[in-house]
Design brief:
Blueprint lengths: L2 E3 L1 H15 L18 E5 L2 H4 L2 H10 L14 E5 L1 H6 L8 E7 L6 H10 L1 H9 L3 E7 L7 E7 L2 H10 L1 H20 L6 H11 L1 E2 L7 E6 L4 E7 L4 E10 L8 H11 L12 E4 L6 E7 L2 E12 L5 E10 L5 E10 L6 H11 L3 E2 L3
Parallel strand pairs: 1-5, 2-3, 2-4, 4-6
Antiparallel strand pairs: 5-6, 7-16, 8-9, 9-10, 10-15, 11-13, 12-13, 13-14, 14-15
Helix pairs in contact: 3-7, 5-6, 8-11
Length: 361
């Protein structure tokens, strides 16, 4: 039976509290703040594990393409260290996110010993009696705001199974850990209260718009507000539109494409007649079921292009149904940045979209 243990975070927190109590005013024992960018993962494993099938499986999943970008971008940036390399350099222990691959059958492994020591004798004994594998989550082992995920299994075959079966769960956990950092980057300059006021007045909802986004379009008749941010690397756009909910067919991919293409006439270039449309021929439009502040939502990811120009990029869109009325909100974020990775911009647009709140009636 596969079990999930959440005691590790408590263990590390108690350990930190215990060590702090005996600090005697010496600040050298206070843990530093963890550093490194979002979407970065440090992998700790024995060289024999990393250079064999478990390492290949881990790279296959965690370096897979982020959905969806015009040019493939890895889901995570991986850095690999052995236990000795981590132990030898303190800065390597101050990063934000670690995944540790543990073969419980290798009792001589320093990685295995570290894992069992972190669990404590009782939990370690229980783990060693397990027949399969476990995922253990911990926090603040070497630094504050740090996530450490142990994938522990008896033998390499079970380790491979654990990586494959727990990939989605671990990915969600890492993204959840990264979200506060992405949110800080998104709203670093503050809020654009003018655009936010237009959204509330025209659409009857609240959306937090970063201050460096400027008003691109306000159409009261079509109930559309569009804001955009221009930087040297990329142009990011966020659109909010109010629709009327009729039935569940509105959540289909085909209908989402129609809504995007209708909005696309507002996006123009110097080429007469050029407009934004969804390109679902070269790459598919993906659909995911979500919840935004307690309201049912569907998320769409795909590629947009201009009809008469060699311009295009990634988009993320949402249809959100107000649980208390027939209001349906369409949110659309799209990025234009030739030669620039789009993943981080899309993640910031997701942060904005998830601030949506319906006004109470």
């Amino acid at each position: 039976m596969v079990k999930k243990h959440y005691f590790a975070g408590l263990f590390f927190a108690v350990l930190f509290l215990y060590s702090s109590c005996f600090n005697n005013g010496n600040n050298s024992n206070i843990k530093p703040k963890a550093i490194s960018k979002s979407n970065d993962i440090v992998v700790i494993a024995d060289k024999e594990i990393w250079q064999s099938e478990p390492g290949d499986t881990f790279r296959y999943y965690f370096e897979s393409a982020y959905p969806i970008t015009p040019n493939p971008e890895p889901l995570f940036k991986l850095r690999y260290f052995t236990f000795d390399q981590i132990d030898a350099e303190s800065l390597r222990r101050q990063l934000r996110t670690y995944i540790v691959l543990v073969d419980l059958l290798d009792k001589s492994s320093k990685t295995t010993k570290m894992f069992l020591n972190d669990l404590g004798k009782e939990r370690a004994a229980s783990m060693l009696r397990s027949d399969s594998f476990d995922i253990v989550y911990g926090h603040d082992k070497w630094a504050r705001d740090q996530l450490i995920i142990y994938i522990a299994a008896k033998g390499r075959e079970n380790l491979i199974k654990a990586i494959a079966q727990k990939f989605n769960e671990i990915t969600d956990k890492v993204h959840e850990h990264d979200e506060p950092q992405i949110k800080i980057a998104t709203y670093f300059s503050g809020h654009n209260t003018d655009v936010e006021a237009n959204i509330t007045r025209i659409l009857g909802v609240k959306v937090k718009i970063p201050k460096d986004y400027k008003k691109a379009l306000v159409d009261e008749d079509k109930k559309i507000v569009w804001a955009r941010r221009d930087s040297k690397k990329a142009i990011t756009n966020f659109v909010v539109q109010k629709l009327e909910y009729k039935d569940t067919s509105q959540f289909s991919i085909e209908n989402a494409i129609k809504i995007i293409n209708r909005f696309g006439v507002f996006v123009t270039t110097d080429t007469e007649g050029s407009k934004l449309v969804v390109n679902n021929k070269d790459l598919p439009v993906l659909k995911f079921h979500r919840t935004i502040n307690g309201n049912y939502a569907v998320e769409y990811r795909g590629i947009w292009e201009m009809t008469k120009d060699f311009m295009g990029g990634s988009f993320i869109a949402y249809l959100v149904k107000n649980k208390n009325s027939n209001d349906l909100i369409f949110e659309f974020g799209f990025v234009y940045g030739p030669g620039t990775d789009k993943k981080e911009y899309l993640q910031q647009l997701m942060i904005i979209a998830n601030t949506l709140e319906f006004n109470k009636k």
